[in-house]
Amino acid sequence: MTAITETHRPNLPKGTSTASRAHRLAERGVDTKLLMLLPAIVFALVLFVYPFSYGIGLTFQPLPEIQDKFGGGIFANYVAFFKDPFIFDSVWITMRLALPVALFNVIVSIPIAFKLRHKFRGKRFMSTLLVLPITLGTVLTAQGLLIFAGRQGWLNRFLMETGIISSPLPLVNNYLGVVFSLVISGFPFAYLLISSYLSGIDPSLEAAAKTLGANWKQRFTKVTLPLLAPGLATTFILTFVLAFSVFPSARLVGDPLGGTRVMALMAYRSFAEQINYSMASTIAIMMGVVELIVIAIVLLGRSFLYKGSTGGKG
Amino acid sequence: MSLTASAFDTLELKDVGRSFGGREALADLNLTIRAGEFIALLGPSGCGKSTALNCLAGLLPLTHGEILIDGKRIDVLPSEKRDFGMVFQNYALFPHLSVAKNVAFGLEVRGVAKAEIKRRVSEAIALVKLEEHAKKLPGQLSGGQQQRVAIARAVVLEPRIVLMDEPLSNLDAKLRLDMRTEIRRLHQSLGLTTVYVTHDQEEALSLADRLVVLREGRVQQIGTPTELHNNPANWHVADFMGYRNLLDMELTEVSGSEARVSGHGLSLAATLAQPAKPGDTVRMAMRPHDLNVVNDHTVTTGRNVFTATVGVVEYQGREFAVEVTTSTGQRLFVHAETAPRVGEEVTLVLDPARALVYQQNLDAGVSEEEREHQELAEVGS
Amino acid sequence: MSSHTAQHDAAATEVVNIAENRNRGKLPPGEKPLVASPGTWFVWAGVAVFFIFLFGIISSVVVDSFGKGWFTTWLPQEFTVSWYQSAWTRFDLTHILGVTLVVAFVVVVVSILVGVPAAYMLARRNFPLKRLVMVLFLLPILIPPITFGIPLATVMYNFGLGRTLIAVILVNLVPSIPFVIITMTPFIEQINPSIENAARMCGASMRQVFVRVLTPLLIPGILAAGILILVRTVGMFELTFLVSGPQSDTLVVAIYRAMTSAGGSEARALVSSMGVIYTAMMLIILIIALRFINPTQLVAQVKESRED
Questions:
Q1: B20 vs C contacts (CB less than 8 Å)
Q2: Which stretches make up the ABC transporter domain (chain B) (predicted)?
């Protein structure tokens, strides 16, 4: 109401907004309803931003023994991170696990999502089964893999009795074990994401391509794939994040001192076993940095793709 | 213009049918389309017209019948091999490709040489007057422009047939009229055989050479716009063709095609459009235009003159659409040259030749054989 | 009657036609071939291998938890439920399950109460610094839990909250609140804002709009998000592990500790029996959840195919 009365005042200089201050703020989207955001922001600041900055501060307060060993003053933790091969190698070890697993999950999900996108009997049942591993959790998957794929497990026993192999395959307590565990927890997730992206593409686009004479290969490469690509990039990022922060499975089904000595494990070791909070924070934050670099690269690639509406409801 | 007419003589649909899990969406569609014809499939939503189009396009497999071009079966071909062009209701433009790329799509997948693609694409874009927008993405265009891209994309391939699935239904009224003219102009200049699906009778009448009216998956009538407009085959087609007044009456006298019906406090002379015998309950269909308000009070007696009370008056530019109520409370839509007052009693004149009498039963008109069946059944019951 | 027979004949010829087409390798479009293509085989083989692993893993654990003396045979020598009894008393599972459920429940309720209004604002409004706020909510989901978990745990220990139930709840809220916001924002965006405007034109206050109009529309989304948070929180190992102690361990952490305890881990079957309890709990949650939602709906609304 105030705004209306004020606009009728004749003797204000031209160009000055005659609306009240509250209205001008409201015009920019600022009013009391914005308070609904407040609790979430407070939580984020207190539980995420503050500890995170505190952690960053902590990385510049290295323990004396680290300073003595690696030098570098307040940067000693970072010097140690890059100079100590036992720590720095974990970067490659983590990448060697997370990148192939994330790629595998995405690439294998595409044809499966494609084949299963039409309605068929038992589709809902299958989707339900596919969600199952999400509920198993890493610890239980690890325990199951140790028993199922271990030297005495059913898998090796079956392969030996059918004569396919002569001695048990080393499938757990190594790199392969962690890969299995990451695929089992990551693949259903990738499948569900990709099939929902796929269902967001208007089916009449493919019908149009069909009537224009495109065979299924051309329809896939020229229509569906370009429309799906941003979704694939997002799925890759999310499965990569899952695989990158792998921790329990690397410890339980992997080889925690060798082939699966991932960054998360190193950080936890500093934190809980060596009680070196500043080094632990350093490794943890470097872990975040490495991950964000990978994500940034994928996002950069994604920015070249078409990302607008794909015609569907999704 | 290098776009040329279709290279075939006739396209034949024989007993074409499609059912979805036991429900027949389309049955016994028989139609022969000559090259260069503009055919409209007309009917309310759910009548099977889109099913028919999708079957023709190969997007839906047939459950019955066959489709032949010059005697050769094509219903066994997948849609990409049929050489048909299709314009979708939602246009189905590829959102990630520019206008030019959208139009070029079909040529590219056929492996046409680059230079030729360029030439034909720019021709097609010029044809629909979108030269300035060639580099834009579909999302940046207005509805009418998107529509024109969809048409260009379909005709650039010089398809044997262009299929259009309610292409104008997403446009506003004015644009719809413009695009209608545009489509007619394109058809006339390119001579492309076109099958056009719509629920708008006005659109179908103005565009098509022949119309196919469908109801519940079955053909009701096939004919030219004039035939359908003047002689609908049954009351459903009549209803669809703008015969807004449908009255259930008793048939009292029949002589040749002339008939007398009574009911609703009226006794009127009419014309038999379907065979019926005295005593039958029939449905009489009249256009508002054939039911005129007369100001000349000298014509107060004579055949087919009666009075009614004016209820609603709508101005329609030069003339008036009027809703009146007869003495027995029956509402009628009539036509007036000058505006009557609401509540006024007016005199109406009906041309007996334009009051068409139909059987109530819709399936009656389908075939002689079936009518016999029905009559037998009715006698039995 | 004659027309009926004719129809039957037509149907019969059609069947013959289809069979002939199939023999010639020419199928009417949409007609499925009897012999699947290599691509189809690949897909089904992949799915089959996945399910073999999945069921192998689950049933191994189940058999192990009921078995006695399972070393070099297909199945254990005898079956028993004693592992469950000893696991229950030894690890005080009543307490652990109680902790797990309390933590999960509190986290779900708090994240929805805090997250949904924020998601609403992000979906409906533009305001200064909106992008920054979005990034603030995205980071806890993208950054590995260990990365912020270790500094967060350090702060918790400094404040004397280490190993308490409060700490476990708080750390789990860090990714959960943003998760609710990120999943609910697109869900709210797809609700037509004119519905709210219509409610306001009918004279409803903002609070009434929320309670009477939006909440019923948001229920499916809230349920989906809530169930995902529940599953995530019960399964969340990394963050809980960093701050929990003997009195505040959730079930996953307890299992992990049993598997890795210093001085030789616990008997394998003991761990397996705890694993089965964990899976059973998750399955119950999942079954309840699937009564309300379709898994593919979690990310986007599914458009059904044209051919229906």
A1: 308
A2: 11-241
pLDDT one-digit tens code per residue, B215-232: 888 999 999 999 999 999
For B94, which of A205, A210, A211 is closest by C-beta distance? A205
Total domain count for chain B?
Answer: 2
Q: Which amino acid is at C192?
A: N
Q: Tell me: ipTM over 0.90.
A: no
Please indicate, yes or no, whether residues B32 and B127 belong to a single structural domain of this protein.
yes
Domain boundaries along the sequence of chain A: 84-302
The answer to whether A211 contacts B95, with C-beta atoms less than 8 Å apart, is: no
Q: Which residues sit opposite B294 in a β-bridge?
A: B347
Question: Domain check: are B206 and B249 in the same one?
Answer: no
A311 CB neighbours in chain B (<8 A) are 90, 92, 95
- List CB contacts (< 8 A) between C42 and chain A: 111
Secondary structure class of A90 (helix, strand, coil): helix
Chain C CA closest to residue A59: C151
- Give the CATH architecture of domain A84-302: Orthogonal Bundle (1.10)
CB A36 within 8 A of CB C115: no
Q: Quick one: pLDDT band at residue A164, thresholds 50, 70, 90?
A: confident
What is the C-alpha separation between B326 and B340, in angstroms, rounded? 15
Nearest CB to B153 within list A207, A212, A305: A212
pLDDT, tens only, C252-288: 999 888 888 755 556 788 888 998 999 888 888 777 7
Q: What is the DSSP letter of A223?
A: I
Contact B175, B143 (CB under 8 A): yes
Distance of CA B105 to the CA centre of its chain: 31
Number of domains in chain C: 1
B220 and B264 together in one domain = no
